[in-house]
Amino acid sequence: MASLGQEQSTATGYGNIISEDTDAGFGISTRARINFGYADQSYKVYVSLQDVMTMGENRQLLPADANNSFAVFEAWGELNLGEGFSTKIGRQTIDYDDQRILGSVGWAQQARNHDAALLKYKKDKFLLDVGLAFNQDKANLSGFSSVGTAYSTTGFFSYKTMQYLYLKQKWDAFSGSFLLLNNGFQEYEDDETTPDGTSSLLTLGTHLAYKKGKLGVSSNLFLQTGKRQGEVDVKGAYLASLDFSLKASDKITLGAGLELISGNDADAGETGAFFPLYGTNHKFNGFMDYFYVGNHANSVGLLDVHISANFKLNDTSSLMVKALNFSAEQELASGDKSLGTEVDLVFSKKFKGYGLAIGYSQMFANDGMYELKETTKDASAGGQNWAWAMLTIKPKFLNTTK
User: Would the pTM count as exceeding 0.85?
Assistant: First the structure.
């Protein structure tokens, strides 16, 4: 199977408040993937190669990839150990529940993967996964190199070690899961080059879901404690959410919910701010990505209250409308908490062999948002918005069964 995704977007305020004298951003990005998979009774293997391109990034006749983005996105093998046990080893995506803490971030062109080993057990409606990862810049078995076991790839919560336990039980209308996740981050001495142990951040919590008839309810509750990168103490950090969905008719589904994420109210060297780590954060808190998408990692937290409606226009097309009101969990320096309201619109259409999605988002920022983003209201543009179109083609060249 291969996939080709092309996204075209224009923005005056995506991810941040844009000033009035700044031109709108515009770009066309393409992700190309080719996937290979094989399954037998005793094992499965899967390889996914991808390249992410911005149209025009390579000058004419340039023999090299300007952004050096061609990579092995996935390469793993899964062995059937019998009695419900299996092990999955290699580069892979890790997705659980609504992808709040661990997700593949398929919206981002490069997406997210992990180099990890999993021990998996599944029986009936019960699932248990144990995951382990140890990251280095290069293998060094002799120990003579200065690299040793150090890991220099830091930032954006890139971890040196990871251990997690995930359990999930399903019933007829209800399911519950528990995640215990520990990440070790490489630390350095004052020279910022000599390795000096790791900081360990523990994230634990649960995802609950209920669906019966036309009603659906889901919730998340997660806590964080330990140390972030830079040996910053994390105390009392939490994320809590509750969402409802109601199928009002065959063509209309309504939604409402809220999410509360703790902010930084601690002293210097400490933080009470929760960060959702390796989740598909673009899925939450508005498509304009003002929060927790490479930003807002140690800030005032967030209260997100939202409502939505999804209209099934026909068998192949739909329209989603969502409004989100944002407030800070902690007060800003001015004492203000109100940040603003965002409206997201997405039209989706399926065709034979490909799909098209078109979206528009508008941010109605309050004074608190300008303070948070360190932009004066007088200097900003009148409207903060983002429009995009995404074309996805997924041909299947070869499909055989044994």
Answer: yes
